[in-house]
Amino acid sequence: MxxxxxxxxxFPVVVFSNAFxxxxxxxxxxxxxxxYLTGKAKRAIHDLLDGHSLAFVSTFADDIKADRAYxxxxxxxxxxYPLGMRYKDSNKSEHGxxxxxxxxxxxxxxxxxxxxxxxxxxxxxLVHFVGDLHQPMHTSRADDKGGNDIQVQWFGEGSxxxxxxxxxxxxxxGMTYTELASELKNVSREKRxxxxxxxxxxxxxxxxxxxxxxxxxxxxxxxxGYRYSYDHNELLFQQLQKGGLRLAKILNDVFG
Length: 256
Ligand code: ADE
Ligand code: ZN
Ligand code: ZN
Prior knowledge:
The structure is a single chain. The chain is mainly alpha-helical. A hairpin with a 2-residue loop joins β1 and β2 (157-160). It has helices at residues 3-21, 24-35, 39-48, 54-57, 60-63, 98-110, 116-133, 161-173, 177-184, 189-196, 200-216, 226-255; strands at 151-154, 157-160, 223-224. The protein contains twelve helices and three strands. The chain has a three-stranded mixed beta sheet. It has a single domain (10-255), classed as Orthogonal Bundle (P1 Nuclease). The site of one zinc ion (ZN) has 5 residues, from α5 and α7.
């Protein structure tokens, strides 16, 4: 087959495959959380989201980045502080961070005097940020912008450490968000209670400690692929599962 014809046929696959898979992690977290909502939380959320699922609204906070009117929320997706430090001891950004974001969302949803549209907005944002909190490169170092400046190759294509953890690993696994969620949502009551214990302050430091290992897992310019996936998929699954169970815990408390 002529090379130009082959490229023409492959074009849609190459261009469009990138477009939506990046959302998989957030949807998995939402789908797992949905399973562990109390009846009361489920009804309140069903009402606010007009019947849409947590998975469906989980990408809203990324979608609005395309609109300048929402630029004040861009710093709400992550937090940077030095490795080895605890969040509570760190210097806080004047623009806010993922922790102040989660607290603000909770306060806004809980305020029953708030307009319904505002409570809906902050609910969608909260679902997203609890997912981001469990992506270790969203709780990492300022110098390299959370790994965005650490260039690597992923199966021969240019990428960076941040992107590997946002998209490359999960996309390469090749399961849909519903398939991943149904694998990860079966957790014993005992293990679930263990994962849901603590506060967002414990969880951010846990994620922050994990990012330390991830910085050590790559060299700048390294060619990553099958071996990196093999070594890190368990951690990826664990973070998705924790994100889902903890999102359910937060929502059950908010709507309890
Ligand atoms: N996304 C954009 N900038 C970031 C940063 N500094 N840390 C983590 N995630 C980010
Ligand atoms: Zn985000
Ligand atoms: Zn990211």
